[in-house]
From TrEMBL:
This is MMPL family protein. It comes from the Bacteria. PROSITE patterns: SSD (PS50156). It comes from Gimesia chilikensis. The lineage of its organism: Bacteria, Pseudomonadati, Planctomycetota, Planctomycetia, Planctomycetales. Its main location: membrane.
Amino acid sequence: MLIHRKRFWLLVIYLLILLPFVGYGAFQALQTKVNSPLDWVDGTFPARADYDRFREQFGNADTVIVSWKDCKLDNPDLDQFVSALRTNAVFKDNSGQWYFERVISGREIYLSLSTPAMRLNDREVHHRLDGTFIGNDHKTTCIVVNFTPAGLLKRKELVSEIQSALKTHCQVSAEECYLAGPIIDGLEIDLASKDSMDRFVLPSTLMVLLICWICLRSIRAALLVFGLSLLAQGITLALIHYSGESITALLIVLPPLIQVLAVAGGIHLVNYYFDAVKDPQITNPAAYAFQVGWLPCLLSAGTTAIGLASLLVSGLTPIRLFGGYAACGVLITTGLLLSLIPGVFTVWPLKRPAKSTNETEVIQEDRHDIWYFLTTILKRNHTVIVCLALLAMLAASLGISRISASVRIETLFSENSKILNDYGWLEDHVGSLVPIEVVLTCSPDVDLTFREQLLMVWDIERSLRKTSMVNRTISTMSFAPRFHRPENLSDELFQYQLNEALTRFKPQFMNAGYLKEIDGKHLFRITAYVSALNDVDYNACLEQIGTHVESALMNKFETIPAGVTTQQTGIMPLVHEIQRQLMQDLFKSFLFAFLIIAVVMTIVQGGLAAGLVSMVSNVFPPLMIFGLLGWLSVAVDIGSVMTASVALGIAVDDTLHYLTFFRRHLDEGHSSRESVLYAYRHCGKAMIQTSLICGLGLLVFALSSFVPTSRFAWMMAGLLMMALLGDLIVLPALLLSPLGRCFELKPETDHNH
């Protein structure tokens, strides 16, 4: 006993020494960094590689689109505002490099196309620009600011400076301006995630502490479990910082998840200790709690870690990071619980309750408690319950086939959020905001003049305008002048002069950002705009665009000329591929976790049949919740995807605790009914407490305006409740049914009786 106390105090001393480093690391990890869909995949992701190549050719598409009610073509204040963005020193770094790659003014483009040299009348200019840089009222315009990679890292400060310049030169406040674009998307995600932490972490933490106290009815035990959950959170966050990462908006649910898992394991151990304290025959309750709890705790930690680590197979970086760090956090948490809870109760044991004088009364109470009645009901109706559960799972499986994924902006924020209001105003008053880029490449050896190459661009653009989902287009031809053919000039000579004149306009096309010449190749850019908010099927949209591009070339030429290639890229196709990867990850990680956990369960339960039967209650929660999402046509987001494997791991936790006691009693020669009742009485209460504490603790985050955080919270709460239903109803019903015989002793063992 003395040796155990020394080990405990030595561990406490080490933890106290590490505490400042843990605190510092946790604080640094919580300083959220830039979030962007571009960070979710690396250069090996094909759509990302295409998009990176496009950015090298035509510049960054990390933009801010700025407009306001008086942002009109005839407003000279726009020129002062644009000049400030191009010349003010606050938009430079210390070395004098600009944070903005380009500042494009709709007013400047309009004026440049209206010059005599372009030979365009006002109607023709509007035909080219309306719906892109000019609204349908022919007056409202916008300013587009392209950020450099360095500017992207300082986007919060730069957006604030843009608003400040707008206030100075146009007398427009931050509330009166409308902002959109990838930069604003990422910034709003940052702000929403930080707001979620600031507003809900403390209420969630207090909720966990309060329910711990209510459930355990011991302030010392509640503070112990709660304190260890905070320590586990801190160590996991410090691990994130010291390994060179920090919390992104998509990792914001990691700290509360670690707290939930720590509380779940701590509640089980504390309940084992409470049971031992009530038993006068157990001389060392702390040692007994460790002996009873170490195996199910380690097994549940291992399976939960496997469920989380299954996310490492994801093709998306934030999901991989979540899975890896959460798995490490689970193992760290289990080590803290198994070492510190028995140690604390060894040093500061709870008082034993006074022994009851009426043993008959106690037995009578035991025979008529809730667990006794529940066991009786399940024994009588196990066939009906098992059949209903299997039918529900079958129906849910059909619903899962209907699941879709989305990472679009309208799925990330509530309908009344400012960012969606800004998007709505800009789409109504300026034009559609989601660009799909088509790049037409003509190699140096292509047998076409520069004019003929431009005509290809024109044909493609006209074809794209016929696409139902494309609202407007803009291309190299949007910046070309109109040429009038003299009457006395032959057609051949006119074509030659026209080609020469268009060739002289190359610098203007390049300056507009719609032509690049690289190693003799001409790269023509055609931008098709689709809505950011309407219910657009982007998959169908991309297919339509690809079909129209190909048909435009085939209509002009019987076969596409040698040396001519086309490519679709841009942020939208990349987001589309990320959505597809999201769906693949959902099924791949869940299948991987299921297979590994199933193998572990068959080994732990000592048989293939027993392991597979025990997996039914574990598959039940994610199957029911995701099946429901499928039937309700609710698109899953990146927050939802992470819950499937997490829920599978958590469900296994309670299953292993329950089956450990069931098998112990069954192996002692008791019947299935007696073993089910025994398992109920030893861990049923703890299972309800953990689900209640964890579910309500996470449910606080459901109030977040950031939809992925909110959805993760209510889905986890729902999954925990379904896991409780699976472990308290479905699993015991299976054990009491004929399927439960696979858990019984082997025939050769029975022969010895």
